[in-house]
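Example 3.2
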Amino acid sequence: MTVGKIIRKVPVVVGKCTGFAVNRTFFPHNRSAHLLVILGVDLFRIGRMISNFGLPMGPFQLQDLTGYGVALAVGKEFAKAFPDLIFNSPLVELLVKNGRNVKEILYLNFCDILFPLNSVVNPISVTDKEILEMILFPVVNEACRVLDEGIMVRASDLDIASVLGMTFPSYRHLYLHFEDQFTYAAQSSSTSDSDYLLFGSDGIVFWADTVGANHCAPATSSPSSKSRL
């Protein structure tokens, strides 16, 4: 923690697991996005919904930016660690086999692979709201697992990490209520006004709480719910 402050970073204590806290929490959004595309949903629409929500880019453009080889290697690690939570999408492997393992910012490579696949799919009908829930509610579930396993001690720590590590939109909230965000900041003798604002930022857990457990839980557990992806 001291080193983090010296180099002017915002440190949080994280236990050991595949992907640590942030990548572990957010890996389901790739899984859900790939499943939606396999079911016939336009990948540009998915990216547009995620960007409109406030994230810098959608999951496919993010994979293009980091490289398909990286996406394939990371996917294998998560498949070994969490076999029950993985959807084995063929898309990235098909791209790599076709020599498309370079970075393409506009993710046109995905389109070349998807055209023949989508031609034989009867696309599912989903609303924009359902796409967001299918992508983000599994992330909420994984965030709860991270907290339940003690990988991170406080929900506010995971919120800070999701905002600063995954650029989750901090304005996605209705009201402030996580008192320990401010308690933690107040315990630091070097805390400035900007630190209070930072530690009051709202991330994935806070957003889920404003949506409401009564909506998130049924949407991700009901066999008939599209959001159960």
